Amino acid sequence: MSAPEGSIRDMLAANLKRARARRGLSLSELSRRSRIGKATLSQLESGTGNPTIETVFSLSRALEMPISGLLDTRPADGPTVVRAADVEVLSGDAVDLRPLRRFELGEGGFEVYDQQVREGARQNSLGHVGTEHTIVQAGRLAVEVDGERIELGPGDYVGFDASRPHAYTALGGPVRSVLLLHYRAGVRPADGEAHPVLGPHA
Predict the structure, then answer these.
(1) I want to staple 187 with a disulfide (CB 3.0 to 4.6 A). Which of 46, 53, 110, 183 is the partner?
(2) 39-59 pLDDT, tens per residue?
(3) What are the HTH cro/C1-type domain coordinates in residue numbering (predicted)?
(4) Residue range(s) occupied by CATH 2.60.120.10 in the chain
(5) Which fold has domain 84-183?
(6) Is 183 within 8 Å of 194 (Cβ atoms)?
């Protein structure tokens, strides 16, 4: 069954090819940087692969660009309403993300996601560009950043440099939360030459 027009799969295929071409990277070099196999990258660029959270975050880290630069989440002019049922889910080992909006703030930008963490699994990230902000709405969430463990309940917030290795684990049941990714000036989806100033990447 083919993906619908405008699906995450289609948007990632087009944006990944464009980003790789801007940087003059071969599939082999991008494979080395992202730790994703060449065959998988080829499938993603052709629109036949099945992207996961882990894949997209690895590409974001390797290409030094925001997640929205790969998923093409561009806000419309004027008021924007996003219905949960209309947003395609990007799933990983333990997390389901629904991209809701990207907006500019001064010289930087934010991406807003509805984030659900499933019970019984751990979502690991080697790191990616941006500063990560999570606000728990329901459930209890364990967040580990460079080995430091923090437990959060409803209404609690944590923020950290997303280039550092981190992990999310739901405690005692599923977790509903809001994820905000903040990008500093110069880190924009359309800017193929920009590099974040967040320190080294894994």
Answers:
(1) 183
(2) 999 999 988 888 888 888 899
(3) 16-70
(4) 84-183
(5) Jelly Rolls (2.60.120)
(6) no
